[in-house]
Amino acid sequence: xxxxxxxxxxxxxxxxQQVTLSCSPISGHxxxxxxxxxxxxxxxxxxxxxxxxxxxxxxxxxxxxGRQFSNSRSEMNVSTLELGDSALYLxxxxxxxxxxxxxxxxxxxxxTVV
Amino acid sequence: xxxxxxPDIHITVSEGASLELRCNYSYGATPYxxxxxxxxxxxxxxxxxxxxxxxxxxxxxxxxxxxxxxxxSFNLRKPSVHWSDAAEYFxxxxxxxxxxxxVFGAGTILRVKS
Lengths: 114, 114
Prior knowledge:
The complex is a heterodimer of chains A (114) and B (114).
Chain A: E1 5-7, E2 10-13, E3 19-24, E4 31-38, E5 42-50, E6 53-57, E7 64-68, E8 74-78, E9 87-94, E10 104-105, E11 109-113
Parallel strand pairs in A: 2-11
Antiparallel strand pairs in A: 1-3, 3-8, 4-5, 4-9, 5-6, 7-8, 9-10, 9-11
Chain B: E1 3-5, E2 10-14, E3 19-21, E4 24-26, E5 31-38, E6 45-50, E7 56-58, E8 64-68, E9 73-78, E10 87-95, E11 103-104, E12 108-113
Parallel strand pairs in B: 2-12
Antiparallel strand pairs in B: 1-4, 3-9, 5-6, 5-10, 7-8, 8-9, 10-11, 10-12
């Protein structure tokens, strides 16, 4: 069974641009969440989607948004990029939004903002 | 507020020696706990998880962890470290009340000397 797939793996953007990252969860998993990892702040929760609805949101500005499609694939978007948005963005999937399900992570998308 | 503490930023052990990585959490709910490992440039790989039941859990690569509710700890252990274990290790805590949101520790970087 394929794992969590994230694309693109690496990208470089310029300040002020926007970026869209994609995540395909493990087949059958309906919950997708996103995390940002930086050397200074560590791993921080961005948001979680389940059945195309945002269920939970972390403490990030509105420039960070996401969505989930009917096939459970998810995208996150960052608008008006800032240098501080340079990070590894990790997607995680789980079978459903109930408790006790194992959370699996993808390889991440490395975003560099210049 | 929920928090996870990994008191050791770096740990160096000799190959073949035993290992214990510490994790303490503060959570206002019944937690479920994970240990993940991250190699440079990679995503997070799940080592083991605790949801309920037996407080000593076994994971992949010979790792185990023990949940101690009275100490709010979930320490990771391995009896004999291999050079390939060198990586960064993250403890994470979640709860049903918080859905798919995980709170991560700052990580412990493990170095293995031969």
